[in-house]
Each structure stands twice: as structure tokens, then as C-alpha cells.
Amino acid sequence: MSTERYNPRGVEAKWQKTWTDAGSFLASNSSDKPKYYVLEMFPYPSGRIHMGHVRNYTMGDVIARFRKACGYNVLHPMGWDAFGMPAENAAIERKVHPKSWTYENIAAMRDQLKSMGLAIDWTREFATCDPEYYGHEQRMFIEFHKAGLVERKVSMVNWDPVDQTVLANEQVIDGRGWRSGAEVEKRELAQWFLKISDMSEELLSALDTLTDWPEKVRLMQRNWIGKSEGLRFSFVLEDEAGNQLDDKLTVYTTRHDTIFGASFCAISADHGLTQKAAQSSDAVKAFQKECAALGTSEEAIERAEKKGIPLGIYARHPFDAERRLPVYAANFVLIGYGEGAVFGCPAHDQRDLDFARKYGLDVIPVVAPKDADAATLDVGSEALLEKDTSTVHMVNSGFLDGMSVEDAKAEVAKRMADAGIGERKTNYRLRDWGVSRQRYWGCPIPFIHCDTCGVVDVPVADLPVVLPEDINFDKPGNPLERHDEWKSVPCPKCGAPAQRETDTFDTFIDSSWYFARFCSPHSDQPVDTDAASYWMPVDQYIGGIEHAILHLLYSRFFVRAMRKCGHLDLDEPFKSLFTQGMVIHETYRSQSGDWIVPAQIARDVDKATDTVSGEAVTIGPAEKMSKSKKNVIDPDDIIEQYGADTARWFMLSDTPPERDIEWTEAGVVGAWRFVQRIWRLVGQVADDNVSIVTEVLHKADADNIAELRKSTHMAIASVGDDITNLRFNRAIARVYELVNALAASLSSDDASDELKMAQREAAVSLVQLFAPMMPHLAEECWRALGGDGLVCDAPWPNHDESLLVSDKVTFVVQINGKKRAELQFAKGADREMVEDTCLRHENVVRSLDGLSVRKVIVVPDKLVNIVAG
RNA sequence: GCGGACGUGGCGAAAUGGUAGACGCAAGGGACUUAAAAUCCCUCGGCCGAAAGGCUGUGCGGGUUCAAGUCCCGCCGUCCGCACCA
Q: Is the CB of A342 under 7 A from strand B?
């Protein structure tokens, strides 16, 4: 074997082909081995992979290769989240068809991913825009509809009048469309909804079973579902003159204990009673308009002043005939939550207090510290919010006086229930999932609108409803709506001329079940139930935190819906979830303030220069790689220059996987040097021919061998453990240690054959340990060392526990907790002897001068602490 | 405002309550070389000391413990999520 530098070019492609030809990573749907399903969130085919992909897929790949070595039947698939707006934008801007744009991007990105050397079963690949895939999606949606999980209802949407489309809330910036800049209108549209809110409780409570998810993500989902337990009750209304009205006002509250502190009622500007009042009041009408303008804007405006307008009606206090509460339409009451109406208790709610101060309404404290005098309580500009309810009780509250908050709630709930005006009610913030999009590049919603039969689902035999390809984007809006030939179909029920639904699905639907499809990607059913019950759930799911709520929640809902329709027998899709950090990079700006790409920068220790202009540039902090700041490194360039192994190694080194990793040139070069170092060491070992003759070992060799074996087996023990727990940075540190140990061992001259054998064993283990991270280099080394077959097929090495323990242990000797000496003893040494020896150690004697020993703590085989004073 | 996470050398970071800084990067010194690259060796939290060794040190202030980066209480700071949810 030559001692040339390792050149990944050619070598990496060679091994990739070898793996493909050997079918090394094909997953079998039946096996005696235990199964392991590792999945990284599949990419959107934007055209090129970015460093975030490299990090994500490297992590998954390490797990896949490691689990395979550990004897698992591993499923590690790849696909494409291929529907979505960018394809349409490309069509509009560059006159390319969304379909060809998407599939060309997929082809390019597939090549890029393959150049990373990923252990993926490519035979399972699919794109969500494949009619075969989305046809199953259509079929399931029809089934969901029949199972009562789907609803068509009219709802308010953000409508962009220029682009002729619905916008998500995130796409509305300061009341304007993010793309067109046009003022967004509120519009009522009939849309399809998945009734995810029906599953609020289950989706919430099952979070407790997801113990292998980050607590942060579970918390975010909990907050998103937003359970609150309270009371819903109705007020009797009257007019100015005290005449009882027909209407009642129903409100929702979690603080019914404070009912005696109520001084007004506030209802949403969109509430039915506001609408009614608006019919006879221009002022109310104007107020409604004002609120509508605020509705979609930024948080700054949303935090605007509390405002309201009296409606001239009054709510009778349920427990005090003497009191009536003025009813206001108010800008801070949401129509979409609870009843869209509340009673205001200014003393104990900051919003209500702001409102009351503005309009001169009563502020009545009703919850007070037990030792306070109720008569002298005064509320300033801050509402009283007691966190510790054990120190307070009810005051100014009639029959509730003196009760605890909890007892008061119970009493109020009971009295209201008895009076038939209220009941306990649990509310959730989680809304139903609106899935209609007025878009072309998405899965057509499989329904037909017939004038006589209404909404009719497309017969299963006619699925998939395939997107027509002869469309154009000359005009704004959804091209499907203008495609009369495609739109016009006979009604499946009555045969009369009818129209297809032209909306397509939210792309979050596509990604809500792809993981199940991977189990049987060619099945004529959405999923093959046997295959799915074999592989699911995903054992390890890896992706960005940005999907903590929507994608993961929708997927959790979807598997439940699929279970209801008999496709899956599964509670949760993802057993263990890992959210990886971002890849960040410094930013560079020229003197004139323009962003400059890193490729164009010469970086010194403390300064950076633009290699094109020769100017010094300003170095900005490391931020997420983004096109706008141009701080992007192209994975292709890195792989071309250093090879995939170097890029992979860098991605895993140093920084824990959940944190943001800073990409630096120095770091990549360091990884590159390490690749070369391994290659040199392995070359050295491979070149050392071991003769058959056995020599007598000299002492130095014996120690060397013992040291090396210990290092090897310690590395084997910890690397596997670290990878299992996704502590890649620690696994890598352990590999470094082993390399250092091997290098130290190789530096001795005239090694005996035994030593050479030990070095060879160490090198072989080393190669196996880093093989999941740097698979190409590992194969090349494996072959150089004469290993059997492919290292990717080799079983993970076992460590020999007996080599890890030595018969001597080093004790730390402390005096009052401060280290004073180190002493070696035989393992399991007698306590008294240890204590005695320590007390006679010269450092200890010196430090104890003038002190008397009070106590000696001995931690066996570890530490002695002498307490003296 | 509510909720959560985090705070350790010049930097990325390690550390089942038991030797703080493993491992890597950067830096400095040296060897090899005509030279450079590559490689190898040494130093590397701060202060004192020739050394042995000592003092000090994990955001700040307290506490528990024989022993605290780690556990508890209170601050300060940074980051993230939600944000009029009644």
C-alpha cells in the first residue's frame, strides 16, 4: 500500500457504486432481525441541497449504518416533498412548467445526496407529486370524509386581490400580501377542513407517552393545543330602560370565582350581537371596520390600545339583581375562541383593567390576601394576579366571601348549573385544519360539484385525479379554475354536467403520511398494512425545530385518522424525535454595505479581505445561512474539494447535534487533515508485515500492547453508547483518542510481532468505529487492512470489559474538598490501609499542619476526603 | 406579559454530586526543509514560583453537603417559543 495522500475523488464514487451494486442498504420487509426505522424529514426539491441537509442526513446516516452494524434490519428511505409554491413561482418567473422544474430539481438533488454516500434504500424513493402517491392521498381523504373527519365549511380567509389567492397568516405582512404588496381582504370562502380539533384531547394527552421527544417540542404542542377548563354561562340582557331582551349573552371564563368583580361584558366586533347593533348604528359599523383593519396585522399593532364601543345593552348580574353590566364590542375579544364574549373583571385581569380605566368602569377587587382589609384594597394600574392561591381568599363577593379560589369556582359552577344558566366547559385553542389552497401545484381535492347532487366524491375507480399539464400562468390565480376541459366532468351520481373542485391540498397533507408510505412504496393500497405494522413507528425521526408544531401535529393527527379508516394500527408515528440545530456562518459586508459570499473571502485570524476587490470587509456574527446575507457554503464545493467524508466528519464534530453549528474554513481543513492522518496511520499498520516467528516480548512492548488494547476497548465501549444516544460530538472525541493512542503506539521502534498484531487489531476496530461517519474512507482502509467483504456489512465490534479494568486505581486525596495528592492503590484496597497511607502522605502531612483530623470519607476505588479543622 | 432553554479558557466544547477544561480549533515555541506546504514534538484558564508546589477560577449573591459546573432559593444576562386564548 502506498503512502500517498488519500484522494476522495474517485474513491468515494467507487464505493458508492459498490454499495449500490451489492444492494447493501436495501431494506427487507421481512427479517428475523429486529427492525429499525430511521428517517430524516424529507427535503423540498428546491434545486440544490444546502448545508442543513448535509447535517440532517449525515446524522440519520450515522444512525442507519450503526444500527445495521448492530444487527438491525434498517429502513432508511428518501423521498421528496415536491408540491408547493416555489414551483409555481418558477413557472411564473421563468416560464418553466412546475412539473419539469420539480423533477429536474429532484434529479439534481438526488445526485447530490448520493454524492454524500448515504446508506439509503433508493428503491423506495417517491415524490409527493407522483400521481401514484397523491392518488392514495385523495382516496384516504374521501375515506376520512366518510368517517366524519372532514368538513366543508365557510370560513374567513386572507384574500390577495392581485394574486387572486388565499394567503396564510404568515404571508400577510402589515396587512399586505407578501408577494403582491396588495392590501389583503377578508373573504368568506367554502373550504375543506380536517377536523383535528375533535382530537384535541387525545393529541394532548398522548404527548405524555412521547417520552423520547424533546420536552421543548411537547411543550410547544401542549401550548398550541391550548386546553383550558372553565365555565360557559349566559347573561340575561336588557335595554337601557331595563326591558328584558330575547337575546342572551353567553360567555366563557376560567375565572368564574371573580364573578362579583365583573363590571362589564365585552364581545367581539364580529359577534352576532355586534352585527345586530351595527344595523342601527353607524358608530358600531365604523368600529367593526376599524377592528377588521387591525385583524391581520403585525403583533405591534395587535398590542394596540384596548378599545371598545358600548352597544346600549346590559347584562344582568346572575347573582346580584341590583347590578347590570354594560355590554361593549371590544377589539381585544377574539371571535374564534370560546364564545367570542367575556365578562370583564378589571381588578384581576390586565386587559380588563386597561379597558375599565379607559372607559371609567368600576374596579372591584374580589380576591385578596387573607390578612388584608378588604375595604381598603386599592387597584392601581396593575391587575392583581396571585400566583399562590393558598394565601388568598374571596372578598366583596356575597356568598363567596372567605372561600378559597377553588371553592369559589366550584360554588359558582354549581349554582349556575342549578339555575340552568351555565356548565363547565373545556376549550382548546387548536382550530380545525383548513386544507384548501387555490393553487395549481398541489394534490387536487377529489370532489365534484354538481348542481343537483351537491358535493360528490370522485369514485375510487377514477382516482387519481391527475393534475392537467396543459396549463399556463399568464394570468394571476389558479390555472385549474380556467381549465374548462379538466374542470368539466359528468356528475358521478346523476351524470349531469358538473365541475371538479379546483382547489388543491395544503402541502402539509403530503408530508403527514409519507413516512408510512415508505414501508410499502409500491403498494396499490395507501399503505400495506403488514409492512406498516412491521416498520412503524419510525424509531428515530430527525429534523428541524421549525416543524415542532405543524408538521408533527398534523402527522400525529393523520396516523389516527388512518387508523380510524383501517390503514394503520398505530398510536403515534414517531417514537423518538430529534431536532437538530442549524448550520450558521459568519457574514461579510463590503465597505459599501453589500453582502459578500464566503467563497470570495480570504479569512485571516482577525480580519477578512474581499479577494475580488482587495478591500477589507466587515465581519458580522455567525447567522443561519441564507441567500439574503449570502453567507452560504455550497455542499457541492466542499464535497468536490475535500470529499463527502470530510464534510460529514465536520458536521458531527465538536458541536452537540441539537445546537447550531458554525461552519468555518478552519474546521473543514481540520477534518480534512484528520482524514489524512487516519489514512497515514492505517497505511503504516497495513505496511507492517507480521512475521510468523514469535519473539520474546520485552516489557515496553507488553505495556504498549496493554495500553493500546485498553484504549481500543474503551473506544469501542463508548463510541457505540454515544451514537446510540446521538452524542456524535462525543463519539468523535473518543475516535480521536483512539487515533492518538494508535499513533503513540506506532511511534515506538522495533515493534515485536505481538505489538504489530495489537496495532492491527486496534486499526481494524478504529476503522469500524468511524465507518458510520466516514464510510468511504472506512471501506478504503478496511480493504487496505485486508478486512472481509465490506465494512458496511461488518458487525459492530464488541468490547472486552476485562480489558477496561486495571488492577490499580488512582485515588484522589482531598483535604476539606480540595485536591492535595494522588495515590495509587490496588483495586478494592482495604479502607483502613488507604486511609492510613493517605494520612502519611507528605503533601497531606504538610497541609494538615496545625489541624486536627475530624473525619475521613473514603469513596472506594476513587477518592479520599479528609475533613480537618 | 406567559412559558421554556442556556450561561464553563481566545473559540467549539467535556465532566453518573467526587481530580473542572477530555477531544478539537486557533495561537505561541521548536524539529525537519534551500524554502514553503505537509508532518512531528512542546506550551497553552488567571496569579505567584526556577521548580516542587501554592492561591484562585464554571454569570452574580446566598444555601444544602465531607464534597457543588452539577442540587435548592433569589438576582443578572442571552437565546427560543407563544403572544389580547378570557
A: yes
Nearest to A438 by CA among A487, A509, A500, A501: A501
CB A753 within 8 A of CB A690: yes
Q: Which long-range contacts (CB under 8 A, 24 or more apart) does A731-734 make?
A: A731/A652, A731/A769, A731/A773, A732/A649, A732/A652, A732/A653, A732/A654, A732/A773, A734/A769
Phi, psi angle pair for A802, to nearest 5° = -65, -25
**Do A259 and A234 meet the contact criterion of CB atoms below 8 Å apart?**
no
Task: Calculate the CA A456 to chain-centre distance.
Answer: 37
Whether residue A537 is preceded by a cis peptide bond, meaning omega within 30 degrees of 0, is: yes
Residue pair A638/A115 in contact by the 8 Å Cβ criterion: no
Type and span of the H or E element at A337: none
User: Does the CB of A299 fall within 7 Å of any strand B atom?
Assistant: yes
The sign one gets for the Cα dihedral A342, A345, A350, A353 is positive
Residue A299: which nucleotide is closest by CA–C1'?
B83
DSSP A348: G
d(CA A98, CA A102): 6
The answer to whether the peptide bond before residue A464 is cis (omega within 30 degrees of 0) is yes
Q: Are strands A616-624 and A608-610 parallel, antiparallel or unpaired?
A: antiparallel
Cβ A825 to strand B below 7 Å: no
> A190 pairs with which residues across the strands?
A154
In the structure, how far is the CA atom of residue A865 from the C1' atom of nucleotide B68, in angstroms?
Answer: 15
Question: Is residue A200's beta carbon less than 7 angstroms from any atom in nucleic acid strand B?
Answer: no
Which chain B nucleotides are covered by protein, judged by CB under 7 A?
3-5, 12-15, 18-20, 22-27, 38-41, 53-56, 66-68, 80-86
Asked which of A8-17, A159-168, A236-245 is least confident by mean pLDDT, the reply is A159-168
C-alpha cell at A858: 473514603
C-alpha cell at A45: 426539491
Q: Which amino acid is at A34?
A: P
Q: Which of residues 536-555 of A touch strand B (CB under 7 A)?
A: 545, 549
Chain A span 229-268 residues with beta carbon within 7 Å of strand B:
230, 252-255, 268
- By C-alpha to C1' distance, B10 is nearest to A605
Taking residue A629's Cβ as centre, other Cβ atoms within 10 Å add up to 18
Please tell me whether any atom of strand B lies within 7 Å of the Cβ of A626: no
Q: What would the grid cell of residue A713 be?
A: 476497548
Q: Which of A222, A248, A256 lies closest to A349 in space, CA to CA?
A: A256
Q: Is the dihedral of CA A537, A543, A545, A550 positive or negative?
A: negative
Nearest amino-acid residue to B25, taking CA and C1': A667
Cα distances from A573 to residues A424, A532, A606, A817, in angstroms, run 33, 11, 48, 50
Q: Each residue of A488-534: pLDDT tens digit? A: 999 999 999 999 999 999 999 999 999 999 999 999 999 999 999 99
List C-alpha distances in Å: A61 to A647, A681, A789.
13, 25, 20
A334 C-beta less than 7 Å away from strand B: yes
Classify residue A595 by its DSSP letter: B
- Judged by C1' against the alpha carbon of A744, the nearest nucleotide is B40
Yes or no: say if A728 and A59 are a contact pair by the CB < 8 Å rule: yes
CA–C1' gap, A843 and B51, in angstroms: 16
Interface predicted TM-score (ipTM) of this complex, two decimals: 0.95
Q: Hey, what's the cell of A811? A: 485515588
Distance in angstroms (rounded) separating the CA atoms of residues A707 and A740: 12
- Euclidean distance between the first and the last CA atom of chain A, given in angstroms as a whole number: 66
Which of the four pLDDT bands, split at 50, 70 and 90, describes residue A87? very high
**Could you tell me which of A188, A187, A192 has the C-alpha nearest to residue A160?**
A187
Give the mean pLDDT of A35-44: 97
Burial class (CB in 10 A: 0-12, 13-18, 19+), A153: exposed
Tell how far CA A152 is from the center of its chain. 30
